[in-house]
Each structure stands twice: as structure tokens, then as C-alpha cells.
Write a structure and sequence with these properties.
Two copies of one chain form a homodimer. Chain A contains 22 helices and 17 strands. With 612 residues, chain A is of the alpha/beta class. In chain A, helix 6 links the parallel strand 2 and strand 3.
């Protein structure tokens, strides 16, 4: 049998599976599967090589289905390849199945969750970088939709891919003309995409996405290119079924009984072919030897140091003992202090430029190949990548995000540069660790903990220098807290973290001068919060608490503490309650009510109150 | 005096002001001001026309300084134009001055806060659309940096601008080669930008950004174009001061005393010229007559209806009585139900395609010209525009954001499509109103309230249909709540909103069957939360509360209620505590612990507990 016949038969099988699965599930996107059936057949049964026994084999080519709503045909392809049973396809979207509505790595072959459009290319860039780092000669394929090319993240990724010369990266754009609600901006004007990818430094080829011959020749061509390649495939949404083909109004609609019968009849009987036989097995290769140690040598500090500076020191020393550590920075490495790592390990350092979305997506890709990416920018600008961070969680990615320049304490640069919502981004993500150290030593300790932790985590660092509070060997386990000041006569507990811990310590001193003893807690582990230790302290201090943080009132440390206390204490919450403005750090801490003076007053009012 | 001489003199004055201001402030970005001094002189004193007495005059040309860190020279230009006193420049970045570190509309001439890079072009697109809508023949200028062109949002905006044929939009890119930490991706390769903007459908001209003649000719050329125009200005960072010019390492560094002296000496004495005389006054024009009414005709409902469907109905009827209402949708208007408005008011409807960042930026621009934009997409994808939403708040923009398809109740599409962090995005923003209605009538009432409210607000809508609870005329004021079930023997209060209110009502019924009376509260106003009413109810029900929400545990309704109760009650919080997955809506509500059954059990455990 000729190669073309084989692949046409397999494509037909994929089409039939996709229609049946979505009809059975009662929801899903069959027409968007049909437009890529021929491309998927070529990818899985001719172009890509992979070891069906091991999704993590370094000998595998990698595929990211960026147009995640085409998940059914992805599952169908894995079934045809013999990776999952064909009968399991009928479990699509069931609560008991890993074959979810959009791909997630609950199905082990999926390297990144997709379904929020325009993110897959960044993940592909990350995978391609990882392969270069790991000296793999395998390739990365990203199958994208045309509609998602409206997302800016696609162009962030395109820029970086060509800048880094990622010739192992091949994007296939399924140009089926139709978005969800209407035609895309460019419809079937393939040249619109051609111009854009070319301008962004890619090699581009236009093909008929339903011609097996053209698809295979394009892959062959792509392998020869010295640049990242984009194959622009003109396709028809619903291809293969006359009443669906190229018709608007069928997005995300499975076929009902009669329509399904008609469609299947038109496609014809399931071709009898054992697709498994056509899977290309790879030659054995050795992946990179990654030593994932975390107990790096701590820096010695003698004076006030910014926690961002300590992050830079820790990252450098961690990098020396852990070659899985890679660093990506958004053109601020001289502010986040990633710059020392950049100098010491240029091959493991990636300038992401001012493109935070892509920075996170690249991190997801690197993590999927076993690397341990540290991504840093100003905390305020992490909001730019919130969707990618969200998807990193669903991707079970092991990425470490670092946000510097948090809160009004940055001062005169003004609100656009102040990270005041970063805790509210990371805290809600189930399983995400959020650490917020207050001095250089605790920062280094937190870095060590983050490195040990597998999964998404976030480190919050401060711009101004802060005095040393701890010893070099002090441990800061995830989920812990520190009682920094304590006596048997404490009348209230003051909880801070980062810069506000230092304000709390100033308030402690002033209150002591007035004969008022308070307990001071460093809640460096904002999530998980140390409920037990905090509850214990609070019970011993008259159930009166002041929480103070350099973050908006909602979504941060105050909420974490309130939720840990579950109604068992009287809480005064000092936080940023207005849209802030430019000024000097000290002025701003005071203006927005989180300075030592405000803590002092809050404690005094609180211990006078008789609410309880 | 020749025009060129005048502008060169003014440019010199702007340079001197920028250097002095930043040195006085002790922080800021003088070198990035110097690279655009000549462009700014041409813009403010030759190209743009504006009425210095009224920043909101429809006869004004509009400028967005997208590279917000060049704020000092923007303030200097306003001073030279006679809008603010020249001596006020020495208050740069002071806590008492509106001349902040990055521009905010605290200074009235600023139409959108900038400083998070790559956002200004979207705002410019919004302003340009507003001018077309308002039949203005004035123009919009967006002054961008080269580094920020790495942001995908720039390309989202570029696509839409050319798609809409915005010939009144002119971007000037200040290509000074240097980013913050090192050279940009393309350095002085101007053709890299040329290719990209051309591919995205713009007319492009390359110029020497320090030649007054070339700058003026480019503006002249741009006015003739039928497309949006990009003027690519090759410049030198630090231009005019030899030891700063084109040198890396000077980003964001003001000059210290000696350096300032040297620099000013090199530039020479302050040219004596009265710049004010060269401001071009516009001819009087009439702006659009916007009728901003909010009491639209309510739809009559007879059966279960999705709140997203009611949003669509309300938007249509609001649009009929309020011609300031414009609608922007991210290719999901058939899911958010913005589609009826799109059909009825095509000129006031904008397909933003799958580009949420740009959608919000465009909204900021439209709002700045007095329109009332409604922006809708799936709530999950609002995370994509979190940074723009943040900046909308600092822009004091009057935009109404609508997120549909929230929570696990969307069902089988899976986690990538579930809005589970949207409340945690909007709640922290000071002043932002967050409404979350549970039935069709309350949705329409909330829409009316949102329309009356001036400022950022968010409406959370649900995918599945929900039964009618209220009457058509019921009022839902911002900051309110509804006691939906109540008796004198209530043993606990159950607080829900949206879909979980219906689960709470099912639990109420089941509990009543067991002889247990509970109070049920609809907390439709999530922010501001109705603390008073909630505290009152809770006190009367044994201080026992169950809060239930289809949102991640942190940052949503539970945190809002806990903070309102301030420790005066025992709270059980039912929310999504794991990363969810695909399944049927009812299965998922149950699996993640927010179904009626879980509420029922929570109430029973709670009233048995003797904690208090």
C-alpha cells in the first residue's frame, strides 16, 4: 500500500472517531477536528517518531496541540497509535476519563494544557530550547488554529523563536477560515499569515492542508530549513462532510443522531488498517543528565540587603550545583538581579525581552522536558502573564516565578510599576506555593525550598534593602512561619511579611516603649499559610490580630490569615486600600496606612476594644 | 524665525527640563526622554492641535505616551505649552504632585495610565475608533518605545487598526536601540520593525528621529495615508549629551550633580523662546451628543434562563436608550450573547477577535472619549488581559467588563475554559464594582446599576440556565444583598451567588425537610460586599455561616464575606479547592464540594459544632 493511501485511510479513521466521540459526549468541536485530520495523520504516522511506551523519552518528537479544542482528534491519534485503547475514546469528556474536553497532562502524552488559545507556540519554543539544551536532534511541532493567531502571545513567541534560530520548531497553522462566532480576520487569505510569519523571521510554506502529498513535502522542506518554520495549511472546517464543510455556525457543536448517521455515511465505512504498524519508532538516545540538588552554598551578608539582590545570589549558587536550573528574565535582569546567573551560565539563561506571556509559556515547555525554570520580572508585570500562569498550573508545570518591586514600597516610579495584585494571582491557584521573605537569609532559604518543591511556586521580592533578621542557617520550610518577637504578656499579634515585617518590628519597639508587648509573626509562607502556628499565637494574645501587608486589601496575606483563623479572632487589616501614586517609599507606606505608626495605632485601638 | 529653528529650540528646552527634573527627583528615566525630545517638540508645537484650556475638547488631537517611563518630557511639553507652570516640573514624582513617575490621568491631559509597556497602541486604537464614531477629523498619536514592540499586545492592536482602516492613527516608534538591561532584540535594525508593521497592514516610513525636517515630513506623509501609519524613528538614547548618547547602562538613572552640570553645559543655555506661541489652536467642533440613560426596558422571562443570555438582552435594550454604549467582544458573542447588540448596532459593535488584551485597551480608549464600553469574553480569558484591567483602573476608565462561563458549572469543556480566578482579579482593585447575579431579572438590574456607575465594573455570568428567583422590578443596588429565605428559627446563614445560590436553595429545601431552618442570602454584590446586611443575618442565626461559591477558594466571595464578618462568626467555606477537570456540570458541582448536598452537610456539621 502506498504511503498516501495509508495516511488517507488513517485520516478517515481519525475523522470517524472525532465525530463519534463528540456525538457520544454530547459536546465538543468535531468540525475543528475534521480540518486537521490529514495533518494529524501525517504527523503521527509518518513525520514524528516516538516511543509509544514512554511519553518522556528524549528520543520522541514533541507535539503541542495549541488549538486545544481539537482535543478529540488528538485522543483519536493516540488511540490509533496504540497508546490508549480505541474504545476509551467513547469516554471523551467523562469525569472518569483523562480524555478531557481540552488537553491536560492528566493524559501523560500532553506536555502542556491548552485550550486558552495562542499559548501553544510559546510552549513549543520552550520545548525546542530544551531540546537544544539537552543536545537532542528531535523536533517540536505546534499545531495552531488560524483564529488564535490574533493573540499577541503568538507573535511574542514568533519573535523569540527566530531570534534564537530554533530550526527544530515547526508550526502548522490550520487555516480553516472560521472562528467561533464568525469568519476570522483574514478568512482564507493565506498570504496575510505568510507576510506576518515571514516578517517575524520564519521560513514559511503554504499548502493545501488536505493533500497528504503537500503536507509530507512541507514537513520534508521544514526539516531542511535553518529557521523556525511555519506551514500554512489552507483547510476547510468540517472537511469530509458536505453539510459541515466550510459552513459557519457549526463551531463547538457535536452532531445529533441523524446528522451523525448522514456524516458517517458520507465518509464511508471505517477503513481497515492497523495504524499502529505505521508509528515510527525512534532510535535510543541518552537524555541530558540533570542533577537536581537544592542545598546551594549560602551567601554571607553583613548589612541591609534587598531580597531581590538575595534572589540573584541564591540563583547563581543554586545554578552551580543544579544544572536543571534555567533562568528566563523579561529585560529586567539588572533589577531582579538575575544578571549574575546570566553572566555565569549564558547557555542556561534566556533573555525573554519585554514579553511576559511568552516568558511563562517558554518556562512551561522547559519544565515539560525536566528543566527547572526560574522566571523573573517586576511582580506588576506578571499580571500580563496571568493566563499563562493559570495554564501552567493545569500543565502541572514545575516553574518558579519571581516577582520583584512589589507594593508601594517601590516609591516614585508610581502605580504602574507596583506589584499589588500578585498574591491575588498566585494564592487562588490550588497547590501553588507562595513565599514572601523579609531578609536576605530567608530569601535564600526560600529559594532552596522552592527548588525542592515540585510544581508551580512564587517568590515575592522587595525593591529596597531590608535589615537582616535571621541567621544564615535558619530554615524556612514551605507552610511555616516565624515568631520573631514573643513574651508571656503579649496583648496582640502583629503579622507581616516582607517589608511590613520590618514596619512591625519598628512598631514592636515603639509599643514596648509604651509598655505594650506584642507578638510579631513573619508569615513568609503566604500559601500554604501556617494556620496552626498563627492560631496558637493568636489564642495566647487575646485573640487580637493586626495583619499588615504591602498589597491590595483583597486577595493577599490578610485574606490568608483571616481564612486560617476562621472567625476565632478580631482582626485589623492594614493594606493598600486606594489606588496608590508616586512618592517616596516611606511617605507611601505611611500614606497608605501600613507604616510602623499605623501598626502601633492599630494595636492600641485593638487592645482597647471590647468586642469580644 | 524658521519653523525648524523654533522646534530645535523647544526640543532643547525639553531636554534641559527632563534632565533637571529627574536629577531633582532623584529617580526617573532621562535618557529615554532625550531620545524623543525632537519628536515631542514637533508633536506639541507643530503637528498636533489642541485647546490648552480643555483636555476633553473634541477638537483636540490625542497623544498616548505608550513608553510611559518618558513621563518627564511629557510633563515638560505640557509646561512649555502653557498647560502647567514650568516651575511645577521640579515637583516630578513628589507625593503632592500630579506629575507622577509614569503618566496617570491624575494629570487631566493623560487619557490612559501608561508604564506597563506595550499597552498604548491599544488605547490609541480605542481613541481612533471613538473619533470615527464621534465624527471627529482629529488624529491620534501613539509614541512607543522599541523595546515594548516585543509585547504581543502591540501586534493585537496593529492587526485591529489595519483591519478597521484607522487612517487617523499614527504610531511613532522611538527606536533608540537600548532596552533596560541590554540592547533590544533588533537594536538599530529599523527594517525589522518596518517588515513587521508592513506585514500587519500599516503604512510605514523610516526617519532620523533627530531631524526636525524628517519628522515633520513624516507627519505630513502620515496624514495623507489611507491606513494606520507607523513612523519608525531611528534615535539615540541620551541624544544631546555625549557621555549618555547610545550608551548602555544609563536606563532609569538620573544624573548626579556633576554629571548634570556637564550635561547641561554640553547642551548649552536654555533657549529663550516662548513655546506657548507655537501651540496650534483648533477650530471649534461639536462633539457627539451622548445620551447616557440607564433605565432600559426589562425583558419578560417565563422560565430558566442563563444569566449570560440576560446580559445579551439587557445590553440590547440599554443600547436602544443610551448611544454612549459600545460593545467589544472577543469572538464569542454567540456565547456571551453580545450578538443581539452586534446585530442591532453594528456601528457601535467591535469584533476584537481572540485578542483580549487589545480588547481591554481599546475599551480604555473609548472610555476616555466619553463612551461606555461593554467588553465580554469567557471569564477565564479575562486573565489574559489582567495587566490591561489593572491599568484601566489607574486610567480611571469607565469600562464594564463581562465574564461568562464561570466556574466548574460550565462542565465538560474542562478547566482551561472555567473562570475560577476572575473574582480574585477584580475584587482587589480599589473602587472596582463586582456583581454576580443569579437569575435573569437580577442580571438585568445589575446591568442597569453598572451603567449608572462611573468606573471599572465587572459582571460575572453563568453558562447554564438558572431558574427565576426575583420579580422583574426588583432593585439590585451596588453594595446590596438579598435575604432570599428567612425565618425566626434559622440556625445558620447560607451565602451564595450565581449558580451556588440555586444550590443553596435546594439545600434549604432539603434541610427544611429535616426540620432545620436556614437563612439564605444572595450576595450578588461581591464588591462592595453588603457587610451590614450579612452581619445582621449572621448574628440572628447563631453566628454560623456557610459560604458557597463556584470559584477557587482564595480571592472570591468567601474572602469577601470573611472580611466583612471580621472574625464575628464561624464560617464554613465551600469553594473549588483542587484543579478541576472535565465532567458534567452537576457531577462537577458535587465532586468539588459546592452542590446542594455539600451545603446541606456543611450546615448540619456546623450547627452541631460547639466551637463558640
Amino acid at each position: 500500500m502506498e504511503k498516501r493511501d495509508v495516511l488517507e485511510k488513517i485520516a478517515k479513521r481519525l475523522r470517524i472517531h472525532s465525530l463519534r466521540m463528540t456525538s457520544k459526549a454530547g459536546s465538543g468541536h468535531p468540525t475543528t477536528c475534521l480540518s486537521i485530520a490529514d495533518i494529524m495523520a501525517c504527523l503521527f504516522f509518518e513525520e514524528m517518531t516516538y516511543n509509544i511506551a514512554d511519553p518522556f523519552d528524549w528520543a520522541n518528537d514533541e507535539l503541542v496541540l495549541s488549538k486545544g479544542h481539537a482535543a478529540p482528534i488528538l485522543w483519536a491519534a493516540y488511540a490509533e497509535a496504540g497508546i490508549i485503547p480505541i474504545k476509551s475514546l467513547m469516554n471523551l469528556r467523562k469525569i472518569t476519563s483523562v480524555l478531557e474536553g481540552h488537553p491536560t497532562p492528566r493524559m501523560k502524552w500532553v506536555k502542556a494544557a491548552t485550550g486558552s488559545l495562542g499559548q501553544g507556540l510559546s510552549v513549543g519554543v520552550g520545548l525546542a530550547i530544551a531540546m537544544k539544551l539537552g543536545k537532542s536532534r528531535r523536533r517540536v511541532y505546534v499545531l495552531m488554529g488560524d483564529g488564535e493567531c490574533a493573540e499577541g502571545a503568538v507573535w511574542e513567541a514568533s519573535n523569540l523563536a527566530s531570534h534564537l534560530g530554533l530550526d527544530n520548531l515547526c508550526a502548522i497553522v490550520d487555516i480553516n477560515r472560521l472562528g467561533q462566532s464568525e469568519a476570522t480576520m483574514f478568512g482564507h487569505d493565506i498570504s496575510a499569515y505568510e507576510k506576518r510569519f515571514q516578517a517575524f523571521g520564519w521560513d514559511v510554506q503554504k499548502i493545501d492542508g488536505h493533500s497528504i502529498g503537500e503536507i509530507l513535502r512541507a514537513f520534508e522542506w521544514a526539516r531542511q530549513s535553518k529557521k523556525p518554520t511555519a506551514i500554512l495549511a489552507k483547510t476547510l472546517k468540517g472537511k469530509g462532510v458536505s453539510f459541515l464543510e466550510d459552513k459557519n455556525g457549526w463551531h463547538g457543536k457535536p452532531l445529533k443522531d441523524n446528522d451523525l448517521m448522514r456524516a458517517l455515511k458520507e465518509i464511508g465505512p471505517m477503513p481497515e488498517i492497523d495504524s499502529k504498524k505505521f508509528v515510527k519508532k525512534p532510535k535510543k538516545v541518552k537524555g541530558p543528565q540533570l542533577t537536581k540538588r537544592s542545598n546551594f552554598k549560602r551567601t554571607h551578608y553583613e548589612k541591609s540587603t534587598a531580597t531581590r539582590r538575595a534572589y540573584g545570589n541564591a540563583l547563581l549558587n543554586l545554578g552551580k550545583i543544579n544544572n536543571a536550573v534555567v533562568c528566563i528574565d523579561g529585560d529586567v535582569q539588572n533589577s531582579t538581579y538575575a544578571e549574575d546567573f546570566f553572566k555565569a551560565f549564558p547557555k542556561r539563561s534566556f533573555q525573554a525581552y519585554i514579553a511576559e506571556q511568552n516568558m511563562v509559556g517558554v518556562g512551561i515547555g522547559l519544565s515539560a522536558k525536566g528543566y527547572q525554570p526560574y522566571l523573573a520580572t517586576f511582580a506588576a508585570f506578571l499580571s500580563r502573564a496571568h493566563d499563562q500562569i493559570r495554564m501552567a498550573a493545569y500543565s502541572f508545570a514545575n516553574i518558579k516565578v519571581v516577582g520583584s518591586h512589589v507594593g508601594v514600597s517601590i516609591g516614585a516610579d508610581g502605580p504602574s510599576q507596583m506589584g499589588l495584585e500578585d498574591l491575588a494571582i498566585f494564592r487562588p491557584i490550588p497547590g501553588c506555593v507562595v513565599l514572601y521573605p523579609s531578609d536576605a537569609y530567608s530569601t535564600e532559604a526560600c529559594m532552596s525550598e522552592m527548588s525542592k518543591h515540585k510544581g508551580l511556586s512564587y517568590l515575592r521580592t522587595t525593591r529596597p534593602g531590608t535589615p537582616l533578621i535571621y541567621d544564615r542557617d535558619e530554615k524556612f520550610p514551605i507552610g511555616g512561619s516565624k515568631v520573631v518577637k514573643k513574651s508571656s504578656t503579649d496583648k496582640a499579634t502583629v503579622i507581616g511579611a516582607g517589608i511590613t515585617l520590618h514596619e512591625a518590628l519598628k512598631a514592636y519597639k515603639a509599643l514596648r516603649g509604651e509598655g505594650i508587648a506584642v507578638r510579631v509573626i513573619d508569615a513568609y509562607s503566604v500559601s500554604p499559610i501556617d494556620g496552626e502556628n498563627i492560631r496558637r499565637a493568636v489564642k495566647k494574645t487575646g485573640r487580637k490580630v493586626v495583619v499588615v501587608e504591602d498589597h491590595f486589601e483583597q486577595g493577599g496575606l490578610g485574606d490568608a490569615v483571616a481564612s486560617a483563623l476562621g472567625g476565632c479572632a478580631e482582626i485589623v487589616h492594614l493594606a493598600i486600600k486606594d489606588l496608590p501614586r508616586s512618592g517616596q517609599p516611606d511617605e507611601l507606606l505611611d500614606k497608605y496606612g501600613i507604616s510602623a505608626k499605623h501598626i502601633q495605632n492599630a494595636v492600641k485601638s485593638l487592645i482597647k476594644s471590647r468586642k469580644r
